[in-house]
Specification:
The chain has 295 residues and is mostly helical. It contains 10 helices and 2 strands. The longest helix is centred in the C-terminal third of the chain and has 29 residues.
Amino acid sequence: MTVPAHEVPASAASPEPTPEQPAASKAGRNLPAAIGVGSALGLGVILVLVYAPMVWVGVVAAAIAIATWEVTKRLGEAGIAVPRIPLLLGGQAIIWLGWPYGATGGLGAFAGTALVCMVWRLFDHGLAATPRNYLRDTAVTLFVAAWIPLLASFATLMVQQEDGAGRVFVLMIGVVCSDIGGYVAGVLFGKHPMVPRISPKKSWEGLGGSLVFAIIGSVLTVTLILDGNPWVGVLVGIMLVLTGTIGDLIESQVKRDLKIKDMGTLLPGHGGLMDRLDSLLPSAFATWLVLTALL
């Protein structure tokens, strides 16, 4: 996990941080803390995948529970009544049922979670009460269920395949390379904002850096770890940048709608756990899809 990707550097006229404040990077983060936390998380992922690959299922399950809690807490603060208990339990079912039953188990659990959440929200104030904002709240609930546990389930489906740990490495290393390339190119050359109304610090130059680094990293991992065709690595790299950028932009817009900077405060220099998973979630699906289809 690394610092946010393809950022436009902050203005040189920005005031220097006071002695009481941690030094922030040009991306607006405490860079030393972000690097330290990201390195620790990355080391943990490596150890799990090398020595106990199936523990990865539990790691993902714990991560999506925390991320779901962060998001539902923020939604509740904004007055959106999301049925948190069935959403959390359903998210765990989506992850764990994918272990014995594969994609069928995860999809079935998602459908069951959706139905239970609809009914829960319909009667959460009792049989005699008139539901308020039912359509809005259930729509947001289903969005969260698809956004977090359903997309995360593809990261656990990968680890169960042949060379499963290697496939997860392809995902993680590709995302890290994309983040690093985007950050470096954005800070050094970023002058043209990509979507300023959604994420003003993302630049086209940073996107180009993400593409270069992600393609190189993905080609190396696909060929050296999975013994695959280099062109598969090129496709994986392109898909990771596209889906990772989309994931960043989706969370940025959600936070803008909620008028917040971060989903939480769990990870110093990063924000909440969901602030680190935003690009990984759609990238997990993209990596699973490409590698399953072509390897």
